[in-house]
Specification:
The complex is a heterodimer of chains A (118) and B (110).
Chain A (H helix, E strand, L loop, with lengths): L3 E4 L2 E4 L5 E7 L6 E7 L6 E7 L5 E2 L8 E7 L2 E6 L8 E10 L5 E5 L3 E5 L1
Parallel strand pairs in A: 2-11
Antiparallel strand pairs in A: 1-3, 3-8, 4-5, 4-9, 5-6, 7-8, 9-10, 9-11
Chain B lengths: L3 E2 L3 E5 L4 E7 L6 E7 L6 E6 L3 E5 L2 E6 L4 E6 L8 E8 L6 E3 L3 E6 L1
Parallel strand pairs in B: 2-11
Antiparallel strand pairs in B: 1-3, 3-8, 4-5, 4-9, 6-7, 7-8, 9-10, 9-11
Classes of the chains: A mainly beta (118), B mainly beta (110).
């Protein structure tokens, strides 16, 4: 079963409104979560790294005031797209890192969220 | 930056073997992942290379050469269901984060 759950799977919102996407690790504590955006026929673009209890680290070119990331607990990170515009329509996907000893880290992905701004 | 480049598209025949390359420029990283992704779905883990050399896993093998800044994914006995996007990704390399390559869309034909 899924170890990282993302909600909602699909969301349609009006231009100018805000929408929140949740990412939960179901059976482990994720100190670090990642948010990606993916446009059709393109690869995953890392938007930000979300660390529990501290501010997210945003990648160059990603507007931190537009894409608000909160990682309030070890199992939940949220991405809020503020004042959404049609160009923000995309597939947003989160992932969580789980330490697995000497083999490094295992990365689990959420199911992804399709955002359509109309 | 970590310019991670892959061919955009590849086409191969069912039953054949295909090699998908990934080249990168980075100062250092912990390991390299390969993922398969079908449209609209989350990536599925295929392999993880830490050391140079070949990692074999059934029909899929992945190779890494750190000195050459190069990796490849080898798919054998291709099946129609292997038609998907294949993504390499570097773990680490300037913080604990997973950075994806440009992705390769593979089409398997009869």
């Amino acid at each position: 079963g899924a170890v990282v759950s993302q909600h909602p799977s699909w969301v349609i919102c009006k231009s100018g409104t805000s929408v929140k996407i949740e990412c939960r690790s179901l059976d482990f504590q994720a100190t670090t979560m990642f948010w990606y955006r993916q446009f059709p026929k393109q690869s995953l673009m890392l938007m930000a790294t979300s660390n529990e209890g501290s501010k997210a680290t945003y990648e160059q070119g990603v507007e931190k005031d537009k894409f608000l990331i909160n990682h309030a607990s070890l199992t939940l990170s949220t991405l809020t797209v503020t004042s959404a515009h049609p160009e923000d329509s995309s597939f947003y996907i989160c992932s969580a890192s789980r330490a697995t000893g000497i083999s490094g880290n295992t990365i689990y992905f959420g199911e992804g969220s399709w955002l359509t701004v109309v | 930056g970590q310019n991670i480049d892959q061919p955009t598209e590849m086409t191969a025949t069912e039953g054949a073997i295909v090699q998908i390359n990934c080249t990168y420029q980075t100062s250092g990283f912990n390991g390299l992942f390969w993922y398969q992704q079908h449209a609209g779905e989350a990536p599925t883990f295929l392999s993880y290379n830490v050391l140079d050399g070949l990692e074999e896993k059934g029909r899929f093998s992945s190779f890494l050469s750190r000195s050459k800044g190069y990796s490849y994914l080898l798919l054998k006995e291709l099946q129609m269901k292997d038609s998907a996007s294949y993504l390499c990704a570097l773990w680490g390399g300037g913080g604990n984060k997973l950075t994806f390559g440009t992705g390769t869309q593979l089409k398997v034909e009869l």
